[in-house]
What we know:
The protein contains 11 helices and no strands.
Amino acid sequence: MSSDRDYQLTEEEQKTLNVLKCQLQNLQNLNDRADDALEIVNSSIGQSEEILKKYGNEVDPAQVQQGLLSVTRNIPKLRSWDEIVVEAENNIDSPALMTDILLPEEIQRIEQRVSLLRGEFDAVYRLDKIDWAIVGVAGILATLVDVFLIQMPKHPGFLGGSASEGGPLANWIKERVNSAFSPEEVRKLEKEYWVPYDPSHSGNLEKQVQGLGPGTHRFHSLGHDPILGFIFGVKDILAGTFTAIA
């Protein structure tokens, strides 16, 4: 069955399969023993009838039914699930698979049903041409905005690199913030509303990041990456962590 290959069973699911396999084996053994016992009983009844007829006695079926022994059923003692699992694992030759429990026809019907459900799910949530067009346009527009408007904020140059004049939008926002708040207010806001993925040094970090500083923290922080930032930046904000390249 495909689920045995594609789906990793949990420990409890494997235990359940083992118990089912053991019970199926026990049931098959009981059926075989019952068939053998029934054959012996029928043979004995036939021989007894022949003997009675030989001596001129006819067998009354009603008397035969009345003469059957009454069997007293003993209710088995209830056992814990752990005891049943241990017994099952000791009485099976290998860990149970779905193919040990279900018939090939049943497996085929289940796989067809699962395939149908997957097809219905994909039909509803599969991205169509319009969805892909929206994704592409959004990505292109975001790139253009970043390149022509935002860019890296204005700086004199990092690690011997060339200086950057910054993007018009980034510079405008920076100027508006600087004109609206005093340096003391800016520092207070930065302290109270800090971004987890944007530390400028290792002072408050549990683990030191070699080389982390005000001029290099953007290169260390994955939250600043234009692409990886969508993953690690969001994760760090939600978890209050800092993911960096040491």
